[in-house]
């Protein structure tokens, strides 16, 4: 990927910058900088209204083909949009699960009926989605899941439990990986179901985190139903579809993540400057290294996206989770170091935390969820470097 804008890309950058500057005003000005890890509770309704305003302006689902409601934007244009979105301080999006994960999955694997039913609502941010993958005994080892679905006339009936389900408490739909074949089939016999959340048989229980917020949830399915036509891909072929979804997760959406990280580092740097901590050469060196780490993350993401665009994605995608999780956990530790002794005391009773404390506490989970660091190292060793598999009892 060329790092300098072409004339066409420069024009697109001006268009994005001007539109955001004109529209992130008035009621939406209060949304600047809101949202992100551990902060998804912040002004959710205002951010949802902003997402719908983006949709009305044609700024959602940029990379989708035009026939499905997108702009058919190139990878470079999508990166430009995210960069400009970050620089103006626009809020973290609330419809990203549908736009970046489920939508591309339906485009790639879904039927025409599914595309007509679900894609317009994602583009217009009329329906929000959550991901039903992890279970209490099947997190990093996703093929070990036990949630079951059985056919009952025109419906699938789902029984089981999912956990760590981000934003399930505000989602209208969940894409659920469930076992429709015999137990013990591992990757075989799994199906990818689209399940409405607002129905009897679906219970969402928020998980209170160390930050005191609850953006993750447990979801219980007890006889929940979905139409037989809501299977994406083949019945029993859900593993392939699920892996496709995870592949889309490594796409341009990673730029969104770096937007949040860069803002966090900027706020930490501002605190260090105003409080005099930046005068400490050791701390100044750590902040410089964090900035360098972000740049490395950005260039690796651009290299990965170039591979995706050319159909030659390499090991860069495999190392991304390990890198960003370790980086972000370290950023939380840096925030507390800059805060000093004041960081040990809650801002207000009974448990009101400031943003640095929330960052530190939330990032302790980064190296666990979405595949722990240990699992990621095994994957890289075995599938990328070709080393012998770890002995399993």
Describe this structure in words.
Helix content is 46%, strand content 12%. It folds into 3 domains: 7-94, Acyl-CoA dehydrogenase/oxidase, N-terminal domain (Butyryl-Coa Dehydrogenase, subunit A, domain 1), CATH 1.10.540; 129-236, Butyryl-CoA Dehydrogenase, subunit A, domain 2; 250-384, Butyryl-CoA Dehydrogenase, subunit A, domain 3 (Up-down Bundle). It is built from 11 helices and 8 strands. The model has no long low-confidence stretch (mean pLDDT 90). It starts with 6 loop residues before the first helix and ends in a 9-residue tail after the last helix. Helix 9 packs across helix 10. The radius of gyration is 21 Å and the shape is globular.
What does the radius of gyration come to? 21 Å
Structural class: alpha+beta
The helix fraction, in percent, is: 40-55%
Report the major sheet. Answer: 4 strands, mixed
Strand order of the largest sheet: 1-4-5-8
CATH superfamily annotation of the largest domain: Butyryl-CoA Dehydrogenase, subunit A, domain 3
**SS summary, helix count:** 11
Strand content: 5-15%
Order of helices and strands: HHHHHEEEEEEEEHHHHHH
CATH topology of the largest domain: Butyryl-CoA Dehydrogenase, subunit A, domain 3
Domain count, please report it.
Answer: 3
Mean pLDDT: 90
CATH class of the largest domain: Mainly Alpha
Overall shape: it is: globular
Query: How many β-strand runs?
Result: 8
* CATH architecture type of the largest domain: Up-down Bundle
- Which residues form runs of ≥5 with pLDDT under 50? none
Amino-to-carboxy terminus distance:
44 Å
Domain Acyl-CoA oxidase/dehydrogenase middle: 130-222
Cofactor: FAD
Domain Acyl-CoA dehydrogenase/oxidase C-terminal: 236-385
Keywords: FAD, Flavoprotein, Oxidoreductase
